[in-house]
Write a structure and sequence with these properties.
alpha+beta, globular, seven-stranded antiparallel β-sheet, 19% helix, single chain, six-stranded antiparallel β-sheet
Length: 287
């Protein structure tokens, strides 16, 4: 018997080892809780300041000052979107999907936050409204607004099928950022990062643990709304997968636009409110 065959043989106590109860890696009871009633009260008095219509298979950027709001709405037909966020004043501070996933879980909804990258690690945006909150977790383990998918990209498409497809979300986000900041494509691309998959319905298969997608339950008029905790630069791609019921990274699926609206809080409503401070770790790393 070879060494590898011996390693593959289950031990006598295999079932006992499998039955060990899991431990939550990052208990989040100590996380600062957003004041949702206050945020919603401020939102009721906020005035619309602008909108951006994101065309199918394209992306568009938008600005949201700290203390303001933005809403992403499905219009015309079922459509998912890939969202990037940066600190408007420092693009090195960007959305950290992996740590957001570790703190909140695989899918986000009301009261949960999009957290920024190291060394900042602070809330960037808080979800205050979600018309798909009713969906929950389905029988397949699927749910909406995931932070597990990275974004469809031309490199994986080329790896798997030899294609040169340029309207996947990674390329859409890259073009939009380059155009918005008037910078070269090769400068914009490294700033594009893993996303919040807005409206997308996803999960992991129980038999193989593979990432799956299925038809989004989103309907025209459904929206996800955020409170901006810091000055934000947003970038949203209307995914070429449409509702992601069949495939992405192609022109096959029916696709529709997504609407981004921004709203300004009144100055008096923000009296006494401050953006979250950057993480308090001293950054000495033991030296």
């Amino acid at each position: 018997m070879t060494g590898s065959e011996n390693i593959a043989r289950p031990p006598e106590d295999a079932e006992a080892r499998r039955s060990v109860a899991p431990v939550i890696c990052y208990p989040n009871d100590a996380l600062p809780r957003p004041d949702l009633p206050w945020m919603r009260s401020v939102r009721q008095r906020a005035a619309k300041t602008g909108e951006v219509l994101v065309p199918p298979r394209e992306a568009r950027c938008f600005d949201v000052p700290a203390g303001h709001f933005f809403r992403i709405t499905s219009v015309e037909g079922p459509q998912v979107g890939d969202l990037n966020l940066w600190n408007r004043n420092d693009l090195s501070e960007r959305f950290y999907s992996g740590k957001t996933r570790a703190l909140h879980g695989t899918h986000l909804t009301i009261g949960e936050r999009m957290w920024s990258s190291f060394p900042h690690l602070r809330p960037m945006a808080t979800i205050i409204a979600d018309t798909l909150e009713w969906y929950g977790i389905d029988a397949y383990g699927g749910s909406v607004h995931d932070v597990i998918g990275t974004r469809c990209d031309p490199y994986t498409g080329n790896l798997l099928s030899g294609t040169q497809y340029h309207h996947c979300c990674h390329s859409n986000l890259t073009r939009a950022l380059a155009d918005y900041l008037n910078i070269p494509m090769d400068e914009a691309e490294p700033a594009v990062h893993d996303v919040l998959n807005v409206f997308m319905c996803t999960g992991f298969t129980r038999d193989t643990g593979r990432y799956f997608m299925k038809a989004s339950p989103v309907r025209p008029g459904d929206y996800l709304e955020f409170f901006a905790e810091i000055d934000l630069l947003g970038n949203l791609s209307a995914c070429p997968g449409g509702d992601c019921s069949s495939e992405h990274s192609s022109d096959t699926a029916a696709c529709y636009p997504l609407l981004v609206e921004t709203f300004a809080a009144t100055a008096t409503d923000l009296d006494g409110w401050e953006s979250p401070a950057r993480n308090g770790y001293d950054r000495t790393h033991g030296r």
